[in-house]
Every structure is written in C-alpha cells, then in structure tokens.
Amino acid sequence: MTLRVLLVDDGMSDRIAVSRALAKDPDMKWEVAQVASAEEALTYLSQHSADAMLLDYHLPGMNGVALLQQLAALGLPAIPAVVVLTGSGNERVAVDAMKAGAQDYLVKEAFSPERLRRSLRAAVDTVRMTRELEERRLRAERAEAAARDALVVRDELFSLATHDLKGPLQIMTLNAQVLRRQIPAAVMTPALETRLGHIVRAAHRMGELIDHFLEVTRGQERPLKREPMDLLAMVHGKVRELEATATRHVFVLEAPEGRDFTGNWDAHALERVLENLLGNAVKYSAAGSTVTVRLGVEDDEPQRYVLLYVVDQGIGIPAADLPFVFERFHRGRNVSQDVSGSGVGLASARRMVELHGGTLSVESLENQGSTFIVRLPRGLQVSVFPTTPPPQGAAPAGGPTHSAR
Fold this sequence. Notes:
With 405 residues, this protein is of the alpha/beta class. Helices cover 45% and strands 18% of the residues. The strands form three sheets. A five-stranded parallel β-sheet has the order 2-1-3-4-5, with helices on both faces. It has a five-stranded mixed β-sheet with strand order 7-9-10-12-11. The protein has a two-stranded antiparallel sheet with strand order 6-8. The protein has nine helices and twelve strands. Keywords: Kinase, Phosphoprotein, Transferase. Pfam families: HATPase_c, HisKA, Response_reg. This is histidine kinase. It comes from Corallococcus praedator.
C-alpha cells in the first residue's frame, strides 16, 4: 500500500532526514512530495491529493497554523491528515495546531524515525475513520429523509385507498336499508330480515376496520375504550353470525354454566380479535370440520382472568413456525399460495389483547389443528406490555379440559 505525504518544511536538512525515515518504513510505502512554504503547499493541495501532511510550524511568510486555518476556509474535498513539527518548548503552538485541525505534533529535537512513522500512520487512520463516520451519518440522514418522504406518500395512498373502499360499503348499506323498507311485509321472511341485517352490520363493521387500519398505519392508534361488557354475549353473537354465513363448518360454543364472563374491556377491540381468530379457523380448516369456542374463568389471585379458546381441526402450524406466528407478515410454510392473507391479523390481535394486559398464545400440531388462547384480566389498567411468555395449555376453571390439536 502506498500513501502520499506532503512535506512542508523550509529546511533542506530536515526534509532529507524525514524523507530517509519514511523510506525505511518496513510496513508502509510513502510517496513524498516536498515544498518549502505554506503558499506552495496551498498551490499543491489545490491541484493534487495527499493522504498526510507533515507540516513545520516555522515557515517563511504564513506559519503552519495559519496554513491549517486557510485550508479549512477553502473547504477542500479531502484535507489530509496533519502532523505538525514544532521546536522544543512550543506546547502552546502544538495546542493551537491541534485546534486548527492537526491530528498530532512532534518536537523536532525529540522524535525518532519510528515515532515519526507511527504518528503519520495513526493520523491517516484517524482521518479515514472520521471520514467514514461522516459518510455513514450522511447516508443515514439521506435514508431517513427518503423514509419520511415514503411515509408521506404511503399515508396519501392509504387515505385514497380507504376512501375508495368505503364508497362501495356505503352503497351496500344504503341498498340493504332501502330493501328492508321497501320489501312488502308478506315477502319479508325472518331469514331475509336477518340476512339484510347482517349485511348492514357487516358494512358498518368494515368501515370501522378501515378507519382503524388507517389510524394504525399513521401511528395514531386510539386508546382502549374500556366499558363493562359480557364476553359470552359477544362470542354468542359472533358464532350465530358465522353459523348464518359460513355454512360449510360446524360451530360449537362451550361455556360452563353459572360463571361470570364480564370485565372492563374495549368491545370493538375484542370483536376484532375474535373475528380474526374465527376467520383463521374457518380459512385453514376443511369444509365439514368443527370450530369450537370455549370460555372459562381463572380465579387465581390477585387478578381474575377470563379465558377464551378458539379450537379448529385445520392444517395446524409447523413447529418451526410457532415462534413466529404472531410476527407481522409471517405465514406458515404449509399455507397454500391460493389461500389469501397478509400475515398481519394475528400480530394485530395479539397487540389488542396485550393492550388489555392479557396474553394471546397458541398450541398447534401440523395436520391436526390449532388452539388459540386469549387470557384477559377483568379490569387491569396497564401502561406497559407484558414481557413474560403466556402460560401454555391452561384449562378453564370449572370448564372442559382440552389439548392442542
């Protein structure tokens, strides 16, 4: 490796001594350019590059520190590493030189050839490291600016997309409501009335989900709206809706009698969690299979928990994918490409549960099915997310036991 050094010294004997010391460097090849004044150094550096500069402080006309200050003012693209040569007793000169940009200084009467070579190599390494750090900083700033611009574009696209998605939903809702009013009573059967009601409620629900999606992508997620609610009533309603729409599966709701399934929760958030778990159970299990929803109560003090199990007889989750099943955009390797999905539903569901101070876990065996377990504290107020893993396979108190399928 060859490094170019500019030697700035008006003393011929000093220039010869330094050139000889560098020529004998066993570890580095130095290409030495010599000038006798600061003005000549400025001219040279304006036309050539150098890795290092060995600079005598006492020069005719402009001294060494003034030269360093002039170089800084010129704003050259690559100022070399600088080692200043001073006379004995000139510590103040050395300090001024370091402030002006030098990396090291040597006292002429005291340094050895090895000390000279070591000082120059260290100065070059220091400058290179400084330049690399500055380049990394500039790259990081450019990447951050590009990311901010991309986020602005993303938010605009999401706003347009959600606006366009809500248009058809409004049309569906209005038409369903018009049909409910205009269909004669003699024609309007209870089943037809129920199905029209499902359409209206589903359209409203989809509008809420679109709004929630837009809020999350903008980092504007709303805080939970905790209110007393009966989890059993919500689950019962969702199961009935699925029985009317997902007719290819059998749905079973199991809950021990006489138990209390109420708590202070956000009904809309838990509805999204349940819809995701039930939707996955239907999506990843064959027609004719059973989807079981179980409720239980865990009375461990000091906090009482309500447990919700969603059990399917589907394709299951490979053991290698289980640790990552709640990560965004992760899908099991046994999922067919024909099965739609983005891989964000379970991550969102887990976040909703954790915001309640609860846990969402899974037990699964490939080709046998999966059991998703929601564990909700009845009214715990939390400001941080739990960091410990949820208990696996806990059975509801007073309810039926089960194992992963």
